[in-house]
Specification:
heterodimer; A: about 425 residues; mainly alpha; three-stranded antiparallel beta sheet; 17 helices; 3 strands; about 65% helix; B: about 625 residues; alpha+beta; Penicillin-binding protein 2a (Domain 2); Beta-lactamase; 2 domains; 22 helices; 21 strands
Chain lengths: ~425, ~625
């Protein structure tokens, strides 16, 4: 299998460097968030940071291994890999171990893994292979249905495992489908409706109107500014404002008090300080107290006293916000954006449709995690437990994101020396 | 749109979200400094504010129950760090083993979470509390919560007040999150039946505590705090002075007194002997004292007036007189002779010597057994009904309409039904259609299988006093100055005997006091209508029974007194009732010193367990 070794020059080093920055930075954050004075050694394997260090080692090893695998392997084995991941998901439903209310874990000899994590690249590979096949046109109904099944079958199974967060991630494939020809209307209307509905209930209408207008102005900067486009934008803005008003009216006048309260709690508007609201409140205190430059490494008082539950996993961004402040957080967000941009940029340069679709899948999945995870710690999203890729503590998650990304790096490294272009 | 502009749209979405996050971060980290302050004060504690439990007053406005501060030591396990365990145990006076065991127990508790407070030690004594306050900063994760416990101002009326105690795991589950480990709730008496009213509503305070465990202030200026709502105050219908006198009179006796205001159904006094000091159920010794009382063979926890079934005795003669008239088989002029008792075939029900023959009024006045056996026979063997069973069912309905043999619905926990045998009971014993009036003749004079609770007897007396109706007896007169809170306690329940039939019976009852068996109960200037009873029972000497109401017109008090194994009704029960009536109507019970002395000094505890049957007082 190991026939064509990629030349070092053909590997996208920027992506690799970003990956390393995230993984090692993540280790430091985990170290800070579960640090105990009597276990100062970062490779102390009795502590989560020691374990994470081992997982980083394993992930790097597997990542490098992937770089040496023939790229055709992924194309050829896309469906079997997808099949295995579906099988594992189903197996979990039957034999799974329940951890914190979700039955998404499989335990093999003391090791726990979460098949849902691996189903992500399984679906990504299968979708890429299917859509890049001969005679597959996205405009056909059949194509859309099969593509939909590839994306949403795992989602459905994961929902049955009570892992709403992981299931939600599969919605990210909408972005990929959009890139491959799904009507922009589906994406934008769906997306806008969700965002507007939430916003309408969270924020006073005036702010929404201002926000919409600002975004619309930004939007006119990236599109051609002819009369038709501008009119369309104006129409959309008006429609959105109308929609927000309707949602607000319906919420206030149609729903009953207890229904309103339930939605408010979900939106974090009414704080349930005893349940999930407690995490969010503590998380906001941690981040908010970071100030401009943060409190410094190991100086975060919130994490010293361990107020934010799950801080090393789902709430790892608190550590960044508290110890590195606004500057650190913004740098992190920008680095993350550069990674996403880089993946999309590289994807567009691929000769093979397979590679491109896979690349878009990677970027979309990473983006979705970013959106939900950080949104949650900032109190902008409901509390849905999904990890921040590369940063959060957790072997399954780190390993699966590494595989996800490195397959793309491997696929990408062939673009230069491959000229066949058979599937383009 | 071509594919590169699609890429641009996706990038636009990605970056928009990034911008939203950055703006949010700027808001939180740069513009809003409240997070910083919260973090500096750094430990957030959720403290429960316990509302003051409602106070309890008697009908005259006298305070009976109030609250006293107690101090519970709470722990937030997650925040316990670098604890000087030895020093900690020393302050609390516990061993290291206790310390570990207690943590284990806390962890097993319902609703345990390491970041939430749990009770570590209940009700610290004041010295320990003081010592603890001094060293609190050494013991991070621990703090003291102030709560209230009950104090009973007078050491009496235990069976009315009831007591409070710790909630069980089941209570916690059933309360949908209201109760937490270590909370107190009403277990019996008014404390139990009015728990929802008395307890108020707990509040929550989020407090920031620094790393030295010192309170720094409110989280977000108390934005998420909820205030505690104090429990509502309750005014009982009990007259404290009357209650106190009742308990004194019954001292060293077993039995019950129930006094009711007939027109309203309000219970004026409810005495259950032996009793105990309600303050035994306060403080750290609550559990121990409870076990002591529970094991006491005299059963001080048993609420006799509500639940003890006694043979009713003479109250049934009064009811028989009424039922007989209603059924049309008896009139005021009906006369029966008495020849030392009631004889029928081989059956004899004995009677004491008195003039003969008698009319109805006379029969009530001298309590003639023979007369009422005759009445009972005519009721059951009434030819208007096809058989004894049907007639008996009718009789049963009548008696039952006076509230006998069923729960009345008093607002206290632990009410019993008493026992009024239904016809099916005799079917079982003798076979259907194989019993008749002579088989069940003892019912005529309130003996036999019957069981009546003192509450039911007082209630039946109230029906007579009201000439036909009763209002369900109750002990709560007002909640937070709102009178008659329960509409159930405003309804008149009419007995099935028409009002005109009462007058002759009441005249008879007046004769009882003025020239009959109850002369000892007479009070100059007050017309009392009453009836003595001497109830045979399988537990030894007869019970001394007396029931009465006064004054005759527009009665203010109806009373039933049972003194167990004390002999004739006139000896003990009647004088006690008389003193009670005097106290209630005139506010004075000392006009007949000899009588009062005799009652107060009377010791009727014949058993060997005198020591335990003594009223337990501290």
């Amino acid at each position: 299998m190991i026939q064509q070794q990629p030349k070092p020059s053909s590997i996208d080093w920027l992506t690799i460097i970003l990956y390393l920055v995230f993984v090692l930075g993540g280790l430091l954050c985990i170290y800070a968030s579960v640090y105990k004075e009597d276990h100062p050694f970062i490779f102390d394997t009795s502590m989560n940071y020691g374990k994470q260090a081992i997982w980083i080692g394993i992930s790097l090893f597997i990542g490098i291994l992937i770089l040496f695998v023939d790229e055709k392997f992924f194309y050829a084995f896309a469906y079997p890999i997808f099949g295995i991941s579906i099988f594992l998901l189903l197996a979990v439903l039957i034999f799974g171990t329940t951890v914190k209310g979700s039955s998404s874990w499989i335990e093999i000899g003391g090791f726990r893994m979460q098949p849902a994590e691996f189903a992500k690249f399984g679906s990504a590979l299968a979708l890429a292979k299917f859509l890049s096949g001969f005679n597959v046109k996205f405009s056909e109904k059949k194509t859309k249905i099969i593509a939909g099944i590839i994306c949403f079958l795992p989602m459905l199974i994961i929902l049955f495992q009570n892992e709403t967060g992981s299931a939600l991630v599969f919605a990210a494939f909408i972005f990929v489908l959009y890139r491959e020809g799904l009507s922009g209307w589906v994406l934008s209307i769906g997306f806008i409706v969700i965002i507007l509905s939430i916003l309408a209930l969270l924020v006073p209408p005036l702010y929404i109107i201002i926000g919409i207008s600002v975004l619309a102005l930004l939007f006119t900067l990236v599109i051609r500014r002819n009369r038709q486009n501008l009119l369309a934008v104006a129409g959309v803005v008006l429609a959105m404002i109308a929609y927000v008003s309707i949602v607000e009216y319906a919420f206030e006048n149609v729903l009953q008090a207890h229904q309103k309260s339930r939605i408010n709690v979900l939106l974090g508007k009414e704080v349930d300080l005893k349940g999930a609201g407690y995490n969010v409140m503590q998380s906001k205190i941690a981040i908010g107290s970071g100030g401009l430059f943060g409190k410094g490494f190991l100086e975060g008082t919130q994490n010293k006293f361990r107020f934010v539950p799950e801080q090393s996993t789902d709430f790892i961004f608190c550590t960044i916000g508290e110890e590195y402040g606004f500057v650190g957080s913004v740098i992190f967000i920008l680095l993350y954006m550069i990674l996403l941009w880089r993946i999309l940029y590289l994807s567009e340069k691929q000769r093979y449709k397979f590679n491109r679709i896979y690349g878009y899948s990677v970027a979309s999945i990473l983006f979705f995690h970013f959106l939900i995870n950080i949104g949650m710690t900032l109190g902008l999203m409901p509390v849905i437990g999904i990890p921040l890729p590369f940063i959060s503590y957790g072997g399954s998650s780190l390993l699966s994101f590494t595989i996800l990304l490195f397959i793309f790096i491997r696929l990408d490294s062939n673009k230069v020396n491959e000229l066949r272009g058979a599937f383009d | 749109m071509n594919s590169t502009s699609r890429q641009r749209v996706l990038l636009f979405i990605f970056f928009s979200i990034a911008i939203v996050f950055i703006l949010r971060l700027a808001m939180m980290q740069l513009l809003d400094d409240s997070y910083l302050r919260s973090a500096q004060e750094n430990v957030l504690q959720e403290q429960t504010i316990y509302p003051a439990r409602g106070l309890v007053y008697d009908r005259t406005g006298e305070l009976l129950v109030y609250n006293d501060a107690i101090y519970d030591l709470m722990v937030i396990p997650e925040q316990v760090k670098e604890l000087d365990t030895i020093g900690f145990c020393k302050v609390l006076g516990i061993t290291y083993g206790d310390f570990i065991a207690r943590f284990e127990k806390i962890k097993r508790g319902v609703g345990y979470a390491s970041y939430r407070p749990s009770v570590f030690e209940k009700q610290l004594t004041i010295p320990i509390y003081a010592a603890f306050q001094e060293k609190l900063f050494d013991f991070r994760g621990f703090y003291v919560e102030v709560r209230t416990d009950r104090k009973y101002k007078h050491n009496n009326a235990a069976h009315i007040m009831g007591y409070i105690g710790e909630v069980t795991d089941r209570d916690i589950e059933k309360s949908f999150g209201y109760y937490r480990m270590g909370d107190l709730k009403g277990i019996s008496g008014v404390e139990r039946s009015y728990e929802d009213v008395l307890r108020g509503k707990k509040g929550v305070r989020y407090v920031l505590v620094d790393s030295k465990n010192r309170t720094q202030g409110r989280y977000k200026e108390g934005m998420y705090d909820t205030a505690a709502v104090a429990g509502k105050n309750i005014t009982l219908s009990i007259d404290q002075k009357l209650q106190e006198l009742g308990e004194q009179l019954m001292n060293n006796k077993l039995g019950s007194i129930v006094a009711i205001e007939p027109a309203t159904g309000e219970i004026l006094a409810l005495v259950s002997m032996p009793t105990y000091d309600p303050n035994l159920f306060v403080g750290r010794q609550r559990g121990n004292n409870y076990m002591k009382l529970l094991r006491d063979p005299a059963k001080p926890l048993f609420n006799r007036p509500l639940a003890a079934p006694y043979p009713p005795g003479s109250i049934f003669k009064v009811l028989m007189s009424l039922v007989g008239q209603q059924e049309g088989v008896l009139s005021p002029n009906t006369t029966y002779g008495c020849y030392g008792g009631y004889h029928m075939g081989g059956l004899t029900v004995g009677c004491h010597p008195h003039g003969s023959p008698l009319n109805l009024r006379g029969a009530v006045a001298v309590s003639c057994n023979a007369y009422f056996c005759n009445v009972y026979r005519t009721v059951i063997d009434n030819l208007m009904y096809p058989n004894s069973e049907t007639a008996y069912k009718k009789w049963y309905e009548h008696i039952s309409s006076f509230g006998v043999g069923r729960k009345l619905g008093v607002d206290l926990y632990g009410e019993g039904t008493g026992f009024l045998p239904p016809s099916t009971y005799y079917d079982k014993v003798y076979g259907r259609y194989r019993w008749k009036s002579s088989t069940t003749i003892s019912l005529a004079i309130g003996q036999g299988e019957l069981g009546i609770t003192p509450l039911q007897m007082a209630n039946a007396t109230a029906v007579v006093a009201n000439r036909g109706f009763y209002i369900t007896p109750h002990v709560v007169k007002a909640i937070d100055d709102k009178p008659n809170p329960n509409p159930e306690y405003n309804k008149k329940h009419w007995a099935s005997v028409d009002t005109p039939f009462y007058s002759v019976v009441i005249d008879g009852m007046q004769d009882v006091i003025e020239r009959g068996t109850g002369r000892i109960a007479a009070i100059p200037g007050i017309t009392i209508c009453g009836k003595t009873g001497t109830a045979q029972n399988p537990h030894g000497k007869d019970h001394s029974v007396f029931f009465a109401f006064a004054p005759k017109d527009n009665p203010k008090i109806a009373i039933a007194v049972f003194v167990e194994n004390a002999g004739f009704g006139a000896t003990w029960a009647a004088p006690i009732a008389s003193l009670m009536i005097e106290q209630y109507l005139t506010g004075n019970h000392t006009t007949r010193k000899y009588l009062l002395e005799r009652m107060l000094k009377g010791n009727l505890i014949h058993r060997n367990d005198t020591a335990t049957a003594q009223t337990i007082k501290h």
